[in-house]
Amino acid sequence: MLCRHRQNLSTRREWLKTASCGFGGLALAGLLGQEQASGGASAHPLAEKQPHFTPKAKRIVFIFLQGGPSQVDLFDYKPELVKRHGEQPPFAADSRFKQVGMQNTKLLKPVTKLNRVGESGMWMSEQLPYLAKQADKLCMLKACETDTPAHPTAVQQIHTGSPTLVRPSAGAWINYGLGTENQNLPGFVTIHPTSEQGGPRNYGGAFLPAAYQGTPVFDGKIEHLESRGLPAGLQQRQLDYLLKMNRDHLGSAGGDDGLDAMIRSYELAFRMQAEAPEVLDISNESQATKKLYGVGEKGTDEMGQRMLLARRMVEAGVRFVQVTDAGWDHHGRIAKQLPQNCYGIDRPIAGFLQDLESRGLLEDTLVLCSGEFGRTPFDQDLSGGKAPPNNYGRGHHSLAYACFFAGGGVKGDMSYGVTDDFGYRGVAEKVHLHDIHATMLHQLGLDHERLTYRYAGRDFRLTDVYGRVIKEILA
């Protein structure tokens, strides 16, 4: 069965190489040559485009830790928080984010031990021993801020730049601005995206042409990609006929972005059937590589497979890859649950960075690892005083959280940003989420103020009317 599948893939590749017209003949040379020659709106939307200026990175990998990792337990050590553990917070709650029961809360010291790592001595939890060994690659931002402490709006903002309005995702903007390096794969892939807090909206294209939206991958598969066993030649005839019908309908309808995107999705799907199965198949990776990521081992297998798949996507030329790991919303039992979460991602992410570097890919791949916000430096008791203190957790916190960049022309072994003595507010070198997005685009050679799309009478952009490039962290 497997041999027959591989033989069909081989036949399909030959069709892509030799056919010069028709649906199956939408090989890169034929499709782009025909469409770019006519210019204007007919140009293929995913054709590779020139950036505004010379880029430092060609692609981005966004590792999203959904729920809000605790910065004071992982990356931002505060001796005063240890010293005054159990006391009432000596600072007033920010008027924008007052929380019910704040008058009864107590300062909560770190639930993990933090150590100095790397030559710069950045702080990192002992629960991340593998990542600590990659400190020379990390640029830690410790005074990050976003606009909302609620999951639905904060998750949407880190993905789209807007906490409430329907806007294109960051991956869609980058797809729109640069196109894709590999015309046989999507330019934007999201691995195991969450179905909650926005769901498809977090990788959607909103008002951008639908071709730029993300393609979700679940359990190592792209849904509905299989050819259902049709020989390549027969499938080409079938799709050629479908293409003609859809093109005729598109002409009579006077232009329809949704229909045009559907037609192009069929075109891309045919090409993907030749290349995507091999990219998605991690079985031929060496045992040493799988061990590096923790694949096949308890606690690290799921994230290990996702990160290994992300590396394969990067190698294959996918422009924007997102990997999601959920479960970081520690309102209770943080002392037990946080180490479990750390164990699940530590080896896979560290292995990914090490693997990228060994293959010469880290230099032009920008990696961002972040949650939608952080956690409060004081405790949260959801039991109403009935639970013992070791069952406490932390609330949502958007005024100061930590994330890190790696590769892609960003300085390594560096910490940027200072918070107050309790990790509650940024006091120096503060960065907003808009600044992070602006910096991501900048490293790809895109000016966040120039990457715009006119819709409903005005120009929109990922950073709205805000944002600055964090030049201090650029190599």
UniProtKB/TrEMBL annotation:
A Pfam short name: DUF1501
Signal sequence interval, chain numbering: none
PROSITE patterns: TAT
Protein name: Sulfatase
The species this protein was found in: Stratiformator vulcanicus
